[in-house]
Specification:
By secondary structure, this protein is mainly alpha-helical. It has helices at 10-42, 55-77, 83-115.
């Protein structure tokens, strides 16, 4: 082990880099999605759906997914279970979750279009009902 405190091991550097790019692409995706929702809101009369399946949003989401997969793989490799097993576990955990979130995002945006913001307001869902004891 190197005694120089300013030198990071390769695994730590990989974790930092993948974390940075995953967070950066997450913010890019969020901002692009917010823009599409705001655009739909401004042009509700002529636009009947929120266009979230455009190439820029898909590329940002795919980049986010790739860097999250790499991040999880690098973090799992810290436990010295092998790079291949770390990569397989990362793919098994991240990719299905990413697909689920993408499809659920589409359903939430459809609800937003059909019922407005009240349709996706989870906090007010139970507000009108009394809780039974």
């Amino acid at each position: 082990m190197n005694s120089d405190p300013l030198v990071l091991p390769a695994i730590s550097t990989a974790i930092l880099i993948t974390t940075f790019f995953a967070i950066a692409l997450g913010f890019i995706f969020k901002d692009m999605l917010e823009y599409q929702v705001a655009r739909w809101d401004a042009y509700r009369d002529t636009q009947d759906t929120i266009e979230y399946k455009n190439p820029h949003l898909i590329a940002a989401y795919l980049g986010l997914t790739v860097f999250l997969t790499l991040f999880v793989g690098e973090c799992l490799s810290v436990f010295e279970i092998g790079r291949l097993l770390s990569a397989v576990l990362a793919v098994v955990v991240v990719i299905p979750t990413s697909l689920l979130i993408w499809f659920q995002l589409g359903e939430m945006l459809k609800l937003l279009v059909s019922g407005g913001s009240e349709a996706i307001d989870i906090d007010s869902y139970w507000a009108g009902q009394e809780v039974k004891k």
